[in-house]
Write a structure and sequence with these properties.
By secondary structure, the chain is an all-beta fold. It is built from no helices and 16 strands.
C-alpha cells in the first residue's frame, strides 16, 4: 500500500519485473494507471492528458526508472481527494511487466503543530550508519498502520520533520534496496 496526500502532487513508486524471469526491467516505456475505488469518481481512471477522470482505462502518465526494479511517476494534486482509495498499476511496453494492483490511500495532513518546531525523525543504515536519503517515511497512530497522520521523503541527511502533537507513533519506512523492520515505535 502507498499513501498520497490529498490536494497535492504525489509521487508513486512501482516495481516492474519480467513476468517469466522475475528480473527487474530497467529500460523501456512503463505506463501508469490510477483508478478511483470509491468517492465521486469511483470506477474511473485519471487521464493525465486532460487532467480529468475517464470512464475507460486511460494512462495516468509515464513512469521514470528510479533504480533496482523501481519506477516512479507523479500525479498532480487535482487527482487526489481525501478519504478516497485508489488502485495504481503499471504496464511495460513489451508486456513483460508483472501487472498487479496496489492500493493508494489518501489522507490530509494534520493542522496541529503547524508552524511549531516539529519533530525530526532520522533514518540511517544499520550496516553503514550513513543517512538514507529519499526514503518514504510515514507515521500512524495504530500498530497495524491504518491511521496515517503524516508522510514525507527523507532529505539528504536522512531526515523528515513531522508537525505532530506529543504521543506514541508507529513510523514506517520504505526505499528500494533496503529492508526495514516496520513499524518503529517512537514517543514524541
Amino acid at each position: 500500500m502507498q499513501q498520497a496526500v490529498a490536494g497535492q502532487s504525489n509521487a508513486l513508486t512501482y516495481d516492474v519485473v519480467n513476468l517469466g524471469t522475475g528480473v527487474a526491467i530497467i529500460s523501456g516505456v512503463v505506463t501508469g494507471y490510477l483508478r478511483a475505488r470509491d468517492g465521486v469518481n469511483a470506477g474511473k481512471w485519471w487521464n493525465y492528458v486532460n487532467n480529468t477522470w475517464s470512464n475507460t482505462e486511460v494512462s495516468a502518465g509515464s513512469l521514470v526508472y528510479f533504480g533496482g526494479a523501481a519506477w516512479r511517476f507523479s500525479v498532480i494534486a487535482a487527482a487526489w481527494v481525501g478519504g478516497v482509495t485508489y488502485d495504481f498499476y503499471a504496464k511495460e511496453s513489451n508486456n513483460l511487466a508483472v501487472v498487479y494492483s496496489e492500493q493508494v490511500v489518501t489522507w490530509s495532513p494534520p493542522t496541529t503543530g503547524k508552524g511549531g518546531s516539529g519533530w525530526t525523525y532520522t533514518l540511517t543504515s544499520s550496516e553503514t550508519g550513513l543517512p538514507i536519503a529519499d526514503a518514504e517515511v510515514w507515521a500512524t497512530t495504530d500498530l497495524v498502520g491504518n491511521n496515517v497522520i503524516c508522510w514525507d521523503y527523507t532529505d539528504t541527511n536522512g531526515q523528515v520533520i513531522f508537525y505532530i502533537p506529543s504521543g506514541t507513533y508507529y513510523v514506517w519506512r520504505r526505499k528500494v534496496g533496503y529492508r526495514f523492520d516496520n513499524p518503529d515505535t517512537e514517543v514524541v
